[in-house]
Amino acid sequence: MSDKQETSGSKGRGALSLQSIFRRPDAGAAAGFFVILVFFGYFGAENNFLTALGTSTWLNFASKVGIVAIPVGFLMIAGEMDISIGALIPAGGIVLAMAVNQFGMNFWLACALSLGIAGAIGAINGFLVTRSKVPSLIVTLATLFVVAGLNSYVSKQLAGTTQHSLQDVGPVSEFVLGDYHTLAFGAEGAQIVLFQSLQSSFFIWIAFAVVCFFILHMSPWGNWIIAMGGDQQSARNAGIPTGPLKIVLFVLSAMAAALVGISEAVLANTASTTTQFGMIFNSIICVVVGGVLLTGGFGTVTGIVFGTLTFGIVFQGINFTTFDKDLNLLFIGALLLIAVLMNETFRRMATNWSATKKS
Amino acid sequence: MSDKAPILALRGVNKSFGPIDVLHDINIEVRAGEVLCLLGDNGAGKSTLIKLMSGVHQPTSGKIEMDGAVVALPTPRAASEKGIATVHQFGGTFPLMSIGRSFFVGVEPTKGWGPFKVYDRKTANEIAVKAVQDFGITRIDDGDRLVGGLSGGERQSLAIARAVHFGARVLILDEPTAALGVKQAAHVLRIVNEAKRRGLAVIFITHQVMHAMAVGDHFAVLIRGAIAADFKKGERTREEITDLMAGGETMAGLEASIEGYMADHAGHPPPAV
Ligand SMILES: Nc1ncnc2c1ncn2[C@@H]1O[C@H](COP(=O)(O)OP(=O)(O)OP(=O)(O)O)[C@@H](O)[C@H]1O
Ligand SMILES: [Mg+2]
User: Fold this and answer.
1) Which of B240, B244, B187 is nearest to B211 (CA)?
2) CA distance B133 to B129
3) How many Å separate Cα A290 from the centre of its chain?
4) How many C-beta atoms surround the C-beta of residue A296 within 10 A?
5) Residue A166: which domain range?
6) From the centroid of its chain, how far is CA A24?
7) Is residue A106 part of a domain?
8) Is the pTM of the predicted complex or chain greater than 0.90?
9) B8-44+57-93+150-264 adopts what CATH topology?
10) Closest residue to atom 7 of ligand 1, CA basis
């Protein structure tokens, strides 16, 4: 009885209790981001890290990982993994380039084709995972290599090269998918630069993040994704179509990967078949640093976005400092380790909450 | 006991997994407002039996009847649509979800329209908290709390309240008190009584005779897959039930043989086998 009064008395909405921090674990990812920002802001100030141009350096880098990291994060929340994205990114670019060059296809149609093929591969991933019950890590490892092989084989067969050029796709396509954007106010000399040389992929990333935030945190589907990763059996018994939902998530991550490939190809005017193994690790790091539990059942879009920003700064920021460039990977490793330990602590504390609260 | 027709009944049910016969000729029935306790040693087949009733497994032969009519329960979904709800040992809930969200998993209340329907957190929390409090768990007053932060008993209660809220008529509880301390278990037993008072048919599985006797109206003891005894409240003593669960060998006999061994061996207990 007295116990009850004590809990309701101390509850107060919005009070900064320990419990309320648990409910906003993305606050941890945000705090981590600001610490890293201040750190590199200080050590990189002399090399223009904090200028609009300097900021664009890591934002541009982050945006590409970020577009893939969100759906990969969704999959991780649902208890799955997708590493085939490493081959789907180049696939997105070369399918577009070949459709335009070899088959004279309309640019937008070619984009749709590229996304469609990626989506089909994602559906195959999802289908194999839900049907065979083989861990998604292994299934997508297999498709990673299959698609990587197809990328070079088909490229050479159809175009005789693994390096495709993609010229003159038109101003609108470039503006939307792959260009540098600058926004500044005021007269020459006394300009206020809002952003400078920010790639289209950054804006795509932010728009995508907003949509994904709505899906995960506001629509009922988000609840389904989280429930599926929390306890698949219970989720199915509660009437959630876990199989189809998982397939949709694999399709989403595959299409997001292809979108990154398309954007890169339009920006660079070339598309290559080189498999992006780095992106596999990078996206997973962003997701984990963003507070998503490796075991599934928990995660936020805001967290993933902050995790990606943090990763972007650490990865690119070192170039602005006087530190040895070789330390960059060490920093990322340390960052990942800290994030994983924090996530685990969070999980333990959140699930032991009543045990620690009761005196 | 009562002349009411049973809600759920098993008639001559057998179950084998390939060559392994797990259940033989099971006949049980539950009525509204009645608690049937299923007792039995490890491996007796209790879990298998309830999996037949909750649509996880299909009987090899025999019939399952609801309200007197033969039914098929091909999936857990089908069973829950017919009003058979199963609560597993850990509540079958999602540790890192809020109480409100986990209460409504799969049937989230929404507001807004079309593709912009959003999950209605406030309504969900209010309904969930009210449903749990109606069961006497007044300590749960905040629907945003994470399920993982609840005690084992509270989690069980939440799962039971959820089943009742969504219209369950038969509540199957697989060892709900197994992992709980004395106070927590008492808590769950109160909830079971409340569910019974509301007219649910409850099937309660347990190893603990004390817990069974606290809530049971009707008892069935399973030994190696067959119903060895079937009796009503007050027809057997605790000792008799314990002996039955031990597989017929009486506890008293066991104690006598241990004492005899100790007398012969200078007070040493017999070595573990
Ligand atoms: N899928 C299966 N395939 C083969 N044998 C099974 C299967 N499921 C259960 N069994 C066997 O059926 C018997 C009864 O198991 P069950 O889980 O129903 O026992 P229980 O009474 O619930 O035991 P406990 O008290 O330990 O939970 C056991 O011998 C078990 O090995
Ligand atoms: Mg069992």
Assistant:
1) B187
2) 6
3) 10
4) 22
5) 50-302
6) 20
7) yes
8) no
9) Rossmann fold (3.40.50)
10) B17
